[in-house]
Design goal:
mainly beta; OB fold (Dihydrolipoamide Acetyltransferase, E2P); 2 domains; six-stranded mixed sheet; five-stranded mixed β-barrel; 3 helices; 14 strands
Length: 230
């Protein structure tokens, strides 16, 4: 199916009709968030950048820019912006660490183009989250299947150098999901640094947090969530 309503940027393919492989097809969507992908065992091993793309039908798809192409596109990445993506490869989505329910993933290749679309009339939402209940989080624990989102109230923050926003040392946050459900949220690296920056802002820090794209893990009977992204 091709939508011809975007005459100024050409017809585009809706996510559900994408074809596998490298085809003459392009998509339009809003970049919700992007994050750095590193090796699970060696965090110094930089693999590339992932981002979520949200379409007019309120569907999302996972996009990936490999390490060799990051320098080419990084300066143009803007969360919240609407982009047109042309000339890419479509593959089946991995069964591990899924950030969307879509079965496919868009991979950037050497001749991929990323174009900022200024058409403000496009009806694409600004946000979409996959908020999961505690029961769902427990079902995902230790499976590495999905990286969901969660909302909770911050009760305590622990760690060293909390007033140093450049520190990337681990920060441990206690988050209440329900009156009788508390989880531990571990923040690492750049994410820990950004969180320290929030703690040290001049404005009042809110106690309710929306946490996106994290990996639920059970440790010795305690529910600990490893935060992987922004």
């Amino acid at each position: 199916t091709v939508d011809f309503s975007l005459q100024t940027i050409g017809p585009y393919v809706v996510f559900k009709d994408l074809c596998l492989g490298v085809k003459e097809q392009h998509v339009v969507g809003r970049m919700l968030k992007f994050w750095i992908i590193r090796d699970e065992t060696n965090h110094e091993d930089f693999k590339g950048i992932s981002f979520l793309l949200l379409a007019e039908k309120n569907t999302t798809i996972h996009c990936f820019i490999p390490q060799k192409l990051v320098e080419q596109f990084y300066a143009d990445l803007r969360e919240g912006k609407i982009f047109q993506i042309l000339n890419f490869e479509v593959q089946g989505c991995t069964k591990h660490h899924k950030v969307t329910n879509h079965l496919l993933v868009i991979n950037f290749i050497d001749n991929t183009s990323l174009v900022d679309v200024n058409n403000t009339w496009l009806s694409i939402a600004k946000y979409k989250f996959r908020i999961k209940s505690p029961e769902h989080l427990l079902a995902f624990a230790n499976t590495n299947i999905a990286l969901p989102d969660v909302v909770g109230e911050i009760t305590t923050v622990e760690g060293t150098n909390l007033h140093n926003s450049t520190s990337t040392d681990r920060v441990l946050v206690r988050l209440n999901l329900l009156p009788n459900v508390t989880i531990s949220l571990s923040l690492w690296g750049d994410t820990a640094s950004r969180f320290r920056g929030l703690l040290n802002t001049s404005s009042e820090v809110k106690s309710v947090a929306l946490v996106t794209v994290f990996n639920p893990t059970l440790l010795e009977g305690m529910t600990t969530f490893i935060y992987n992204s922004v």
